[in-house]
Amino acid sequence: MRKWRSNSILFAWLRSYALVLLIPLAMMGVIYAQTQRVIEDEINRANSSLLGQLREEIDSQLEHVQRMREVVAFNARVRGLLYAPERLTAEHRLTMVQAFADFRTYSSTNRYIDTFYIYYRTGDFIVTDKANYAPDVFFQLYLADTGLTYDVWRKFLDAPHRGEFVNGQDVGVSPGEGDIWFTQSLPIENPNDRLATLVIHMNKERLQAALENIRTYNGGDAYVLDGNRRVLAASVGAAEGGPALPTGWEPTEHTGVVRHTGSGEEVVVSYIRSSMLDWTYVYSLPMRLYAEKAGYVRNLTLLTLLIAVVLGALTAVFAARRNYVPIRRLVDSVSLRSKVEPHRARNELQYIGETLEEALERNETMRRELDKQNVVLRSNLIVRLLKGRLERNFPLESALEEYRIRFLSDDFAVLLFYIEDFSGLFRAEERDVEKNLRFVHLILSNIVEELASRKHRGWVAESDEMLACLVNFAPGTTAAQAKQDVQRLLEEARSFLGERFRIEFTSSFGGVHRSAEAIPTAYREAMEAMEYRMLLGAGTTIDYEQIREPGASYAYPLEKEQQFINHVKSGSFEMAKAIMDEVIERNLQESPMSIDMARCFMFDLVSSMMKASAEAASGKWELLEENQRALQAMLQEQTVASMRARMTEFLESVCTHVEARKKSRNVRLKDEMLAYIEESYRDPNLSAATLSDTFALHPSYVSRFFKEQTGDTVSDYINRRRMAKAKLLLQGEDAAIKAVSEEVGIYSISTFIRLFKKYEGVTPGVYRDIHKEQNKA
To answer: Which of the listed residues 24, 299, 563, 722 has the most CB atoms within 10 Å of its CB?
Structure first.
């Protein structure tokens, strides 16, 4: 034992604990170096998040302002005053009073809007949500104290505006008095006419309040900059002399962070661009706040590390001495019984490990040899039992006992497994098929035996290139319960092996027999059931009772065949496939048949498909080559399931072809109807009934078809075409409204005026006058 004093596990543990204690010291340097950067990143991320929230809040209000422009600009009463004279009529004054109510509703929907007004250039008056004013009176009441001159203001109103936000200082408002204005010339569809100007004053105090909300987070200052990087609004701290914004930089990115030293203090500036305008939202934070938070984390880390080192050292010494006592006792005990000499080991643990390894190796070698012999012998015994090849005086009970096979009852069944595919289990370079198959057999055997042993007993052996499982049922199990348990076992095995190991197999089983002497009969039944693998397809479970008495014929009525052909000719794939599936299921599952009879049935069904395909081609042999290829592919299939898949694929191809031809006919019919309307729109009797008579179709079908193809009803489409033609005629110099009405097929002048106003928004006379004014301008 003295040899181990320097290499003893006790000192090894102490050195390991000391190394573990050094790890926090090394991590301290990394943490200290990264703390400030991490805190800066987190603060910058928080600032960016605050700016993002600010942008969403303000941009949503800006978007509301722009939507308000649309609502005001297209207000019928606002548009009705565009051509009002300077001396307003009673009708104009009534319209103006109604507009006051609309304006008050608009003003109450956005808390960022202070006020808005409309200057009407033709009448030279201003309308607000309270009253109408002469321009000079309005200026004296609301704008005279802002530093703005009347001439500059009038020039601003007369200028064209296309929906832009303007800083009041750019117009001439004194610094500190200017709000943010949104201006739009009316009518909005032709702002160059400048018949009126809409001006919306945004509330600067509420904008500053939104900036102040994010300032309270950690003491920074917030700004809103316009496209020229001038301050539109700022938080209270910034307005009272907070950190200055950096100079000489442009926000080239959508969002970013820059450092700046100004007023003797370094600041970090985060910015983000508006998604609505060329505005930039900025947040400025002093660097000293970063340093304060980083210093707090650094001090906390050093204190925690010191405590951990002291406690860790004391714990390491105590734990090492306490854990070494049982190790020392174990070494003393093993050295008295083991053949391994202690002086050969480097320390106590190596000595114990070498001793255990030597003992376990001897035991494992013996166990492997015994298991290998037992597996081979047990498998041979099971195969002989299944095939009935046991000698007359063979001691079956003692042999079963030796291989730990104990029957629970006298009820037995035999399951067969044929491996179909296991390529997904191995890599491409693992090409030893025989070795791989042995491995697959081992997996399937273990899983099936485990599933069978949950309620009953099961033993698997290899027989005739398949795996056979002898199942012995628990006492009291009825034949129906036994069959149900077998089916559940096969389903669980298929699901588990398919999902976990990518192993696919076909299984079969015979009936339940009431004695051990009938096991060969159960095996023969399972073999006969497996022969129907070709009929029922790979990857299925075949029950002997289903194929015990195969039918001598199959059911394929003439009416089903005719329905099938009709659905194919109409291009209805789902309906045709439903009939095909119904006939196949009825013949292959509900009434089992022999393999030869099944082939006759499938060839009969293929013949129906060929006939339907030829009729769907309308005698033009459009699908001749495809039919030939499909027929060859179906006849080459080995199983009914694969033949059925080929038939489904070909059926979908034929129905798709027929459906495509139907769609092309619908397009041609729509084009012909539109061309007919274009030629006959002058006919006052033109309607859906006219189209019905012209194209020999039912009126209800014409209306439904036209709506589906164009999105409009027949009458709406005809009226739109007539109004489009009428607009062109009204642009003429001598265009009389009655003559235009008759020219487009409407002989009632009141009906023409009503339809024109419905589709164009104005009467024909107003439209003609507007066009003349535009030509003069």
So the answer is: 722
- Do 197 and 183 contact (CB within 8 A), yes or no? yes
Q: What's the N-to-C CA distance of the chain in angstroms? A: 116
Assign 260 to helix, strand or coil: strand
Amino acid identity, position 657: H
Candidates 695, 722, 700, 720; CA nearest to 710 is 720
Q: Which positions ≥6 away from 154 have C-beta within 8 Å?
A: 135
**What does pLDDT average to over the chain?**
78
Which residues is 414 bridged to in the sheet?
Answer: 470
Compute the half-sphere exposure of residue 411: CA atoms within 13 Å on the CB side of its CA. 16
268 pLDDT exceeds 90?
no
Query: What percentage of the chain's residues is helix, strand, coil (to nearest 5)?
Result: 60, 15, 25
User: Given a cut of 50, is residue 240 above it in pLDDT?
Assistant: no
Provide the pLDDT for residue 2. Answer: 43
C-alpha distance from residue 682 to each of 719, 722, 757 (Å): 11, 8, 19
CA 555/CA 552 separation, integer angstroms: 11
What is the average per-residue pLDDT within 479-498? 91
d(CA 527, CA 101): 92
**Cα 340 to chain centroid, rounded:** 65
pLDDT tens per residue across span 497-532 = 999 888 999 999 988 998 888 899 999 988 888 877
What is the per-residue pLDDT across 18-66, written as a single tens digit (0 to 9) for each?
777 777 767 766 776 676 677 667 777 777 787 787 788 788 777 777 7
Cα 82 from chain centroid (whole Å) = 51
Query: How distant, in Å, are the alpha carbons of 52, 109, 264 from that of 219?
Result: 18, 32, 18
Give the angle subtended at the CA of 242 by the CAs of 240 and 245, to the nearest 5°: 125
User: How many Cβ atoms from other residues are within 10 Å of residue 518's Cβ?
Assistant: 18
> What burial class does residue 206 get, using C-beta atoms within 10 Å of its C-beta: 0-12 exposed, 13-18 middle, 19+ buried?
middle
Cβ(497)–Cβ(447) under 8 Å? Answer: yes
In contact, 658 and 571? CB cutoff 8 Å: yes
* Residue 67 CA neighbour count, 13 Å, CB half: 10
Per-residue model confidence (pLDDT) at position 467? 92
| Tens-digit pLDDT profile for residues 54-72 | 788 788 777 777 787 887 8
User: H or E element: which one contains 587?
Assistant: none
The size of the chain, in residues, is 777
Quote the crossing angle between the two packed helices 558-570 and 640-680, to the nearest 10°.
50
Sequence-distant (6+) residues with CB within 8 A of 742 are none
**Alpha carbon distance 446, 116 (integer Å):** 84
> pLDDT > 90: what percent of the chain?
8
Closest CA to 652 of 701, 580, 737: 580
CA–CA separation, 201 and 213 (whole Å): 22
In which residue are the tokens 């109004």 written? 723
Q: Which pLDDT belongs to residue 239?
A: 46
Q: Which of 634, 538, 534 is nearest to 580 (CA)?
A: 634
Q: Which residues contact 271 (CB under 8 A, 6 or more apart)?
A: 51, 251, 255, 256, 257, 258, 280, 281, 282, 283
E strand or H helix at 457: strand 457-463
